[in-house]
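Sequence in, structure out.
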Amino acid sequence: MNRHARLDLPDGRQLDYEIRPSAKARSLRLKMTAREGLTVIAPKGLDERQVIELVTGKRDWIAAKLGQFEEVRHLLVDKPAARPESFDLPALAETWRVEYQITKSQTVGARTDRQGRILVYGAVTDGERCKAALRRWLARRAKETLMPWLESMAAESGMRFSRVIIKNQRTRWGSCSTGGVISLNAKLLFLPPQMVRYVLMHELCHTLERNHTSRFWTHLRQFEPQTDLLHGRMRDAWKQVPAWAHPVQAGREGV
């Protein structure tokens, strides 16, 4: 089972990373990419404390490598994000106010109280639980809106997919499996409509061409003439996502 840890960097910031045990690995291997951030491949059976110590010894190299990847800066943790009092969802042209209500419950939930207001209730003195409840609410809102949006675009373009999954991922806006299952990131709701549409069309075109071949880009440009412009803008899109919306660990949260 994959595990997650947090590394203290020399400049005081922190980085979440994933530890993947491997039966084939004979030594510890660090993999750093702009898409996935830091992944540590560890020999199966190696004590987690040893893994963390070895990774800590490489923190200068990791910090230098991170500086080369603008795309993964959102993975860095400067300080815990405060629970939000309000936020905007540009994709839907919505503004939401958040109210917190203490109840006797030991858990925390979030629900739409009325249009434009979210009620977070339960043990709301726990900030992390409040943010997790809001991320679950965000995933539900994404399911309500992104799924019909994608269905409408598929019908207009004549493309087909098998089903949609909404996730809260840290490094991918969307993906499409060989079976036509499209996964969409709930945080797309923080982007402008044109950028959301680009991501949805991008994944729909993967039902025609699995990889990023020249044929794939030809399909995408046919349906989205501003593909090149929007593709460039997506590199900085993570900056539009508030810190509280990111999962604490570098995994993913579902609906």
